[in-house]
Design brief:
Elements (H helix, E strand, L loop, with lengths): L17 H13 L14 H13 L3 E5 L2 H11 L7 E5 L5 H8 L3 E5 L9 H7 L5 E5 L8 H11 L2 E5 L7 E2 L2 E2 L6 E5 L12 E5 L2 H12 L14 H4 L14 H11 L2 H19 L6 E2 L6 E2 L4 E5 L5 H13 L5 E2 L24 H8 L1 E5 L6 H16 L7
Parallel strand pairs: 2-3, 2-4, 4-5, 5-8
Antiparallel strand pairs: 1-9, 6-7, 6-11, 8-9, 10-12, 12-14, 13-14
This protein binds pyridoxal-5'-phosphate.
Length: 399
Amino acid sequence: MTQEIFTGSFTQQEPIPEAGIAAALAVLRHGRLHRYNTAPGEVAETAALEQEFAALTGARYCLAVASGGAAIATALRAIGVGPNDAVLTNAFTLAPVPGAVAAIGARPVFVEVTDSLTIDLDDLAAKAGQARVLLISHMRGHVCDMDRLMAICAAAGVTVIEDCAHTMGAAWGGVPSGRHGAMACYSTQTYKHINSGEGGLITSDDDQAMARAILLSGSYMLYPRHLAAPPPEAFAALTYDTPNISGRMDNLRAAILRPQLALLPDRVARWSVLYQTVESGLQGTPGLKLITRPQAESYVGSSFQFLLPGWPAPQVQALLARAAARGVDLKWFGAPAPAAFTSRYDHWHYAHPAPLPQTDRILAGLIDLRLPLTFTEADAARIARIIRAEVCAPRPAAD
Ligand SMILES: Cc1ncc(COP(=O)(O)O)c(C=O)c1O
């Protein structure tokens, strides 16, 4: 019998919508790409994007910046984190998160992950006294019990910044992701939920923190041109003490992004279909553990994770090779060395990570796959059948 093969691309995103292409062409034709280069009476695309994204999330203020990583570093700095300060953050996240902490000379203190792939709140409670700020990364879209997280942080006097790179469009208990902490950071990089190649957004209700973020991003003295910013008085005391670190978004990217905001609910619904199709196709596979998702979480299924608890490394490696031979691109968080986008806390030597035995055990069996919206429901079903067959195939003997 011939084996089923998958021929789709796990990295192919959808095209930019025609309205975004038209808006981008208009910016190219008039040539005013810099956000503060406006004709008399003109509202810059970047300022309009900020206003629309603030309205979408319910935040008072929004700032568009050059990348998700720049958003996190700017938010940390805006909230008052400085050189040598400790910042609590997830051990299970991707490299730009500890990278943003390191970029401002601060020190990540990693918190364990649970089998649900969320931050371990008991470990967080135990470590809360070690830092004044928590950078919570909703890694791969898994949202922890945000009510308990906020209670732990409030009790310990810890300010929360949310990394929502994977949760734009998600919610906890009906509250949009990013609306629990003091500031939230989003990415609009190609693999995220809206795509401008590179880009980031910061939201907040805090006048001082957002005024500082706007100055840090490189607003010169042109902050009154922002439409989702604190009043000018909020900037007065900060102007002479806040460095310009130039990380602005430009009007071209903002033009590409604005029409995508309205498409977000439809995208979320389509991701749910793909996610649930893979999930039901893998249900009951011996040796494979699915991730249970809490009732209070509404997630965006733009990627899928499962666990292979207790599998020895050579058996995981053999599975990855068999799946790849059938066209299914699986990533493994247990790999000894960083590969492409996938790396692990103990690969970030610059952060001097302390060993985290629970995280080591979980990541050793953690498999990850992308679900781009160019996949159909039939593609998702086929991918699940291939994974299931290969997980059930006889495994090489472990020595
Ligand atoms: C969890 C997480 N946070 C933050 C970022 C940073 O986003 P960017 O690539 O836009 O800097 C990424 C990017 O992959 C990410 O995966």
